[in-house]
Amino acid sequence: MSVLTISAITADIGGYVGHSAVHPDLSDVALQRVDAAISQGLLIDGAVNSCGDDINLVMTHRHGVDAEPVHHFAWDTFVELTELAKRLHLYGAGRDLPADAFSGNVGETRPGVAEMEIFERPSEPLIVFAADKTSLGAWNLPLYKIFCDPCNTAGLIIDKGMHAGFTVEVYDLIERRKAFFNCPEDLYDLLSYIGHHRTVRDQACLSPGNPDDPVASTSTSLLSLIAGRCVGKDDPIMIVRCQSGLPAVGEVLEPFANPHYVAGWMRGSHNGPLMPCALDDAHPARFDGPPRVVAMGFQLADGRLVGPRDMLGDISFDRARTQALEMDDYMRRNGPFEPGRLPIEDIEYTTRPQVVERMHGRWEPIEEPTPTPAYR
Ligand code: 13P
Ligand code: 13P
Ligand code: MG
Fold first, then answer.
1. Does the CB atom of residue 107 touch ligand 2 within 6 A?
2. Rounded to whole angstroms, what are the CA distances from 326 to 268, 282, 290, 337?
3. Ligand 2 atom index nearest CA of 287
C-alpha cells in the first residue's frame, strides 16, 4: 500500500463582485492548469471549486505534505489567476499573495493549506469543507462534535474501531505552540482551550489505532497576523476522512445542521451563523454573508478523486439554512454592539485603529475622588 497525499489549498485571488464570489474565468484557468499538472505527472488528480470569494484546489499526489513542487504549482496557479483578476479589476486582486517571492511553502504565506498523507483504504470516502467570511476557529466546534462527542457521533459508542476515541492536535497560533489531547481522557482540558474562536485551532485528529494515519486536517495560516492588519479573514479549509472505523459521512456532516456563531462576516468584524449551503449557493450577499460552509464529498480510487458530491446542498440542511437566516435577523439588530460586533481585541487588525487615532486628543483621564477620612 503506497502513501497518498491529499492537499487542499485555498486563496482569495480577487472578488467578483466585491467579496462575494470567484469569477468563472479564474476557475476555468485553474482547471486548465490542474489538468496540465495531471498530464505532466505532478498530480494524480485535482479538482477546482470555490466558496464565496475563495478558490480552492483539491489535489492528490505522491510527493508528501509540504512538498515544494506541489506548493510551487499552487503558488504559480494563484499568481497566474492574479494577473487575470487584475485585468478584470476584481476586488482585492492578489490579496492573498504577498509581494515577496514564494518561500517554498504556500502555508507560510497567505493561502490556507490542509494536507495529509494517508494509506488509501479499499474504499476511502472523504469530505473537504471550505468556508467563507469566517476564520480558522470555525472548525473547532464541528471537529469537537465529530471526533469527541458521542451525542453527535454514535460510532464513538457502538463502533469498536472508534470506541477508544481520538487524539486531537491543537495549535495556538497566537502563542505559537501546540499540544496533543487524548480524548475522552483529556476532554475537559481540550474544551478549556478550543472554546475561543481566535487563539486556538484544531489542527489534526489522529486515530489511536494508527497515529501515523491522520483522519482530519485543517488550515492554520493566520492571515491577519502575517499581514499585520486586516486584509480579510483567514477563510479556512479542512479535510475529514470517513467510515470504516472513522466517523460515518452523516456523523461528519451532522454538526453543520447547527449553524453555530463564528467570527467573520462583514469586514471580518462580526459574529454570524455558519450557514451550510450548496456549492452553487456559496455566494455571500447579506451584510457580506452570512458566513458559509460547503462540503465536497469524494471517493478516492487509487488516488483519483471521484466527485465531488455536494454534501451540504442536500434538503436535510434546509432547516439549518432557515435557522441561520433567523439568527442573522437577530444578530443584525445588535448593530455595532457586542456580540453582533466582535470584541475590540479581535478587530485590532481592521481599519478601526485609524479611526481611534483621530479621537486621540479628545480623551482625558478620569480624576479619582480624593478619599475622605470616612473612607479610610
Ligand atoms: P461503516 O462502519 O461501514 O463505516 O458504517 C457506518 C454506518 O453504518 C454509517 O451510518
Ligand atoms: P473576505 O475575507 O472573504 O474577503 O471578506 C472580507 C470582508 O471584508 C467582507 O466584508
Ligand atoms: Mg473570503
1. no
2. 20, 18, 11, 18
3. 10
- Compute the distance between CA of residue 240 and CA of residue 250 in angstroms, rounded to an integer: 12
Grid coordinates representing 66 are 509540504
Pocket test for ligand 1, best of 153, 158, 159 (most atoms within 8 A of CB): 159
Q: What is the DSSP letter of 342?
A: P
Q: Which three cell numbers stand for residue 10?
A: 485555498
Q: Is the pTM of this model over 0.85?
A: yes
- Helix, strand, or coil (residue 25): helix
Q: Compute the distance between CA of residue 123 and CA of residue 40 in angstroms, rounded to an integer.
A: 27
**Given pLDDT bands bounded at 50, 70 and 90, which one contains residue 95?**
confident
Q: How many CA atoms, within 13 angstroms, populate the side-chain half-sphere of residue 16?
A: 20
Q: Compute the 3-state secondary structure of the chain and give helix, strand, coil in percent, each to the nearest 5.
A: 30, 30, 40
Per the CB < 8 A criterion, the answer to whether 219 and 114 are in contact is yes
Give residue 356's pLDDT band: very low, low, confident or very high (50, 70, 90). confident
What is the C-alpha separation between 318 and 334, in angstroms, rounded?
25
How do 112-119 and 3-12 pair as beta strands? antiparallel
Cα torsion through 338, 339, 340, 341, rounded to 10: 50
Per residue in 282-294, pLDDT (tens digit) is 999 999 999 999 9
Nearest to 295 by CA among 146, 137, 131, 139: 131
